[in-house]
């Protein structure tokens, strides 16, 4: 028995499944989703093609499971960051950071989410998350700056758009993620502060 075969038998089914998903993510990050195949994954993971199909019935199912796993992890990290935030600035920073993590080097979330047949498995969750995040940020903005609900909602939508655009640009141009994220936080807070001063001075 070869060393590779010996190592394969030591993995539990769950560990093997995670290893296959990890290999898939690395391959997609490096070469793109079009080049990704089950046969290529088997070679990369040093397993047989039939073994891969023991865990995933198709390429689409594998990619959907990868998206579900990574999206769940992404949501959990964002939730933990927001839970730890104790000031409005920290809440904004946590929200902006989640946008930048979405486009960080090595992540496959934006790649997978551009595929209609793959993203369909989390479409309802995406919509729910967006509504919940927006409602929470509107509530915090209203409470902190005493804006009316419509103004707070507009500010949240504008800020969210700015954060997503900055994150996408930073990822596409390989900018320093932390530096651009901090610039984005400063930009958002300065804009809200300026509007607050103007509205409350009237």
Produce the secondary structure layout.
Elements: H1 3-10, H2 13-31, H3 38-45, H4 49-55, H5 59-84, H6 88-102, H7 109-113, H8 116-119, H9 123-145, H10 149-172, H11 177-201
Helix pairs in contact: 2-3, 2-5, 3-4, 5-6, 6-10, 6-11, 9-10, 10-11
Structure notes:
Helices cover 81% and strands 0% of the residues. It contains 11 helices and no strands. The protein has helices spanning 3-10, 13-31, 38-45, 49-55, 59-84, 88-102, 109-113, 116-119, 123-145, 149-172, 177-201. α5 (59-84) runs antiparallel to α6 (88-102), α6 (88-102) runs parallel beside α10 (149-172) and α10 packs antiparallel against α11.
| Count of individual domains | 2
Count of DSSP-assigned helices: 11
| Number of strand segments | 0
CATH topology of the largest domain: Tetracycline Repressor, domain 2
Alpha-beta classification:
mainly alpha
Biggest sheet character: none
Supply database-style keywords.
11 helices, 81% helix, 202 residues, 2 domains, elongated, Tetracycline Repressor, domain 2, Arc Repressor Mutant, subunit A
Nutshell version of this structure?
The protein is an all-alpha fold.
């Amino acid at each position: 028995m070869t060393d590779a075969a010996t190592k394969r038998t030591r993995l539990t089914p769950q560990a093997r499944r995670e290893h296959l998903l990890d290999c898939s993510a690395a391959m997609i990050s490096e070469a793109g989703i079009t080049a990704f195949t089950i046969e290529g994954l088997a070679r990369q993971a040093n397993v047989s093609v039939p073994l891969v199909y023991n865990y995933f019935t198709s390429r689409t199912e594998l990619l959907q499971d990868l998206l579900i796993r990574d999206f769940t992890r992404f949501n959990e990290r964002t939730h933990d960051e927001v839970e730890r935030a104790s000031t409005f600035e920290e809440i904004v920073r946590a929200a902006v950071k989640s946008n930048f993590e979405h486009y960080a080097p090595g992540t496959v979330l934006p790649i997978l989410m551009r595929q209609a047949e793959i993203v369909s498995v989390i479409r309802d969750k995406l919509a729910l998350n967006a509504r919940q995040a927006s409602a929470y940020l509107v509530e915090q903005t209203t409470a902190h700056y005493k804006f009316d609900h419509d103004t707070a909602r507009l500010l949240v939508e504008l800020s969210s758009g700015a954060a997503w655009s900055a994150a996408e640009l930073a990822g596409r141009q390989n900018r320093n993620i932390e530096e651009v994220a901090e610039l984005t936080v400063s930009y958002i807070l300065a804009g809200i502060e300026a509007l607050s001063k103007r509205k409350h001075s009237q």
